[in-house]
Design a protein that fits this description.
By secondary structure, this protein is an alpha+beta fold. It has 4 helices and 3 strands. The chain has a 3-stranded antiparallel β-sheet with strand order 2-1-3, covered by helices on one side. Helix 2 packs across helix 3.
Length: about 150
């Protein structure tokens, strides 16, 4: 059975141009000689739509960590607009889920929602009934992805 899954994104308001800027960035992991990226320049504004694609092991996740400032470039700099928030959807998303909590409890604890607010939000992602209150470890992979 197929379920429609509407997504709504809040209006980010205005941010100065560029929202994200990568200037002459090069990167290599400590202890290695080979650069993974060399002299990368990118500017992203509110009208940009960006997809990062490539074969396994070429550095897509590393590049995202540079953009998120989880890693520092070997050379160059990554600049963010003051109010910029970057969200990512990890291919290893399950590592961040507390498997013994329910989805409802997770939202209540992490986002200070009431039980009713949490259950209403989960319902919007087609997670209803016992799925909302059972431990996350009992959910299917697709259900866990919707909790994220």
């Amino acid at each position: 059975k197929t379920y429609p899954l509407p997504f709504e994104f809040t209006n980010p308001g205005s941010l100065p141009h560029p929202v994200l800027q990568v200037q002459h960035v090069s990167f290599k992991y400590e202890g290695t000689d080979d650069l993974l990226f060399e002299d990368v320049d990118i500017g992203v504004d509110l009208n940009s739509r960006v997809a990062i694609v490539g074969k396994n092991g070429v550095g897509k996740s590393t590049f995202m960590k540079l953009l998120n400032k989880e890693l520092e470039p070997t050379e160059g700099e990554v600049l963010h607009a003051a109010k910029l928030k970057i969200a990512t959807y990890s291919q290893h998303f399950e590592e961040g889920l507390p498997m013994d909590k329910s989805a409802t409890k997770l939202l209540m604890d992490d986002y200070k929602m009431s039980a009713q607010e949490a259950r209403r939000l989960l319902g919007r992602f087609n997670l209803s009934g016992k799925i909302q209150v059972n431990p996350i470890r009992t959910l299917s992979g697709g259900q866990k992805a919707r909790v994220m």
